[in-house]
């Protein structure tokens, strides 16, 4: 299993980025979510099974802080309301969240530095899942965790060793 995620910690007013690369046991991601701080376990977890994606970049002449990259992801909802996502990568992202839910759309707002990790996983792995944890209070539409990763994979997958 390969996972790349971004968490928003409201207690410390900061985000943390983590990369987990390991062969997992069934349900390990769900077990990991259970170990997140209480603010996350009180949220509502969703998972999107991603089947197609689009990638792009842009610049704004009038707004130097506009998002520079985006990933548009389509699929099906394994759990939660979202069955698609648009992840925007900003030079300076909003400080109080990593995204929000709008109907069946997950909107992610991440740092530019997160783009390479997300794109690498999406273009080279299969199947792909996007996980997120949203606030359980409908009055506060914020996503506190967002991650991308694979399901269980066999040992030894990856690029061929051409050195032998």
Q: Secondary-structure map with pairings?
A:
Layout (H helix, E strand, L loop, with lengths): L1 E8 L4 E8 L6 H7 L3 H4 L2 E14 L11 E11 L4 E7 L8 E4 L2 E7 L3 H10 L3 E7 L8 E8 L14
Parallel strand pairs: 5-7
Antiparallel strand pairs: 1-2, 1-9, 3-4, 3-8, 4-5, 6-7, 8-9
In brief, what are we looking at here?
With 164 residues, the protein is mostly beta strands. It has helices at 28-34, 38-41, 115-124, and strands at 2-9, 14-21, 44-57, 69-79, 84-90, 99-102, 105-111, 128-134, 143-150.
Notes on the structure:
This protein is mainly beta. Helices cover 13% and strands 45% of the residues. It has 3 helices and 9 strands; from the N terminus they run ββααβββββαββ. The protein has helices at 28-34, 38-41, 115-124; strands spanning 2-9, 14-21, 44-57, 69-79, 84-90, 99-102, 105-111, 128-134, 143-150. The chain has a 9-stranded mixed β-sheet with strand order 2-1-9-8-3-4-5-7-6. A hairpin with an 8-residue loop joins β8 and β9 (143-150). The longest helix is centred in the last third of the chain and has 10 residues, at 115-124. Mean pLDDT is 75; it is low at 8-41.
């Amino acid at each position: 299993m390969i996972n790349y995620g971004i968490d928003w910690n409201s207690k410390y007013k900061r985000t943390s980025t983590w990369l987990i690369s390991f062969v997992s046991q069934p349900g390990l991601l769900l077990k990991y979510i259970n170990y997140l701080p209480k603010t996350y376990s009180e949220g509502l977890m969703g998972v999107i099974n991603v089947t197609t994606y689009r990638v792009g970049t842009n610049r704004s002449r009038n707004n130097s802080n506009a998002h520079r990259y985006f990933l548009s992801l389509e699929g099906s909802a394994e759990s939660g309301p979202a069955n698609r996502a648009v992840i925007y990568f900003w030079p300076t992202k909003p400080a109080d969240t990593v995204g929000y839910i709008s109907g069946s759309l997950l909107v992610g707002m991440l740092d530019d530095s997160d783009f390479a990790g997300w794109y690498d996983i999406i273009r080279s792995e299969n199947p792909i899942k996007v996980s997120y944890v949203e606030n359980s209070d409908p009055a506060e539409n914020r996503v506190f965790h967002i991650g991308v990763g694979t399901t269980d994979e066999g040992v030894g997958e990856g690029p061929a060793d051409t050195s032998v």
